[in-house]
Amino acid sequence: MVNKTTVAWRIGVLLLLFAALPAGLYLHETRQIVGTEAMLDVSVSVKTISHVEVDALGDSVWTPTSGSGFLISSKECEVLTNHHVIAEAARIEVYPRHWSETTGIPATVVNSNPRSDVAILRMSECAGIPQATLGDSNVLRPGDEVYAVGNPLGSNPDSITRGIVSHTERFTSGLIPYLQTDATISRGSSGGALFNRAGEVIGINTAIMATKSGGALGVGYALPINLVKNETDKLHNGPPTWGEAGVEDYLTGLTEREASFFQVPDGRAAIILTNSPEEGPSKDKLFAKDVIYEIGNTNITSVKQAQRFISGHNPGDQLTFRVIRDGEHVDVDITLTEGWETKEPPGADYYVGHLGLSFEMWDTENDLRGQYDTPVITKVHSLGPAHLAYVTSSQKTIARNGPLMLPIQLEVKTLTGVAFKGKHHEVHSIEKLEDLAARAFAANLPLLLEIETWGRENPLKFDEPIKRQKTSFHVIQPALTTAAAPKTDDSDFDVGLEQTEPQTSEVAYLNAERRR
Question: SS3 for 268-296, per residue?
Answer without folding.
Answer: CCEEEECCCCCCCCCCCCCCCCCEEEEEC
